[in-house]
Amino acid sequence: QGGKDQTKKGSNIKLGLQGDKKGIGQDPRKEGSLESGHHLKLEELMSTLERTRQELDATKQRLSSTQQSLQERDTHLTNMRQERRKQLEEILEMKQQALLAAISEKDANIALLELSASNKKKTQEEVLALKRERDKLMHQLKQHVSTTA
């Protein structure tokens, strides 16, 4: 029995060595398919990289276009704000001129009534009323000038 065991072990050793030889050398068909698989995987990755680069370029172009559009709109907005500010200044100046004209009109009416030299109570009341209106207009003018400054 001891001899039979050794024979079995010896044949197992021989099979083991032959099995190792097959493992080292491997089947050429398997090696080719591995290389082919790696090559296909590499081509797939290269293709994906190229698509990604193209998408990046397209995104860069859209970003550039968007930035240019934004810059144009910002310039337009700045111009519109300047125009608005100019118009507001003109409106405020016109308002100030209207107040000055109203004050001048009140002064002229007061002067006319005072020149009439009639001491009638009605005339004096009109002069006082005109002076009150003139004072109100002066107050508005002062407020207007203080808000624009």
UniProtKB/TrEMBL annotation:
* Basic and acidic residues: bias regions: 19-41
What Pfam families does the record point to?
Cast (PF10174)
Residues of the region (Disordered) are 1-41, 56-78
Q: Which cellular compartments is it found in?
A: Cytoplasm, Cytoskeleton; Presynapse
**Coiled coil found in the keyword field:** yes
**UniProtKB keywords:** Cell projection, Coiled coil, Cytoplasm, Cytoskeleton, Phosphoprotein, Synapse
Polar residues: which segments have biased composition?
61-70
Keyword Coiled coil in annotation: yes
Classification via PANTHER family: ELKS/RAB6-INTERACTING/CAST PROTEIN, ERC PROTEIN 2
Full protein name: ERC protein 2
Q: What is the lineage of its organism?
A: Eukaryota, Metazoa, Chordata, Craniata, Vertebrata
Name of the coding gene = ERC2_6
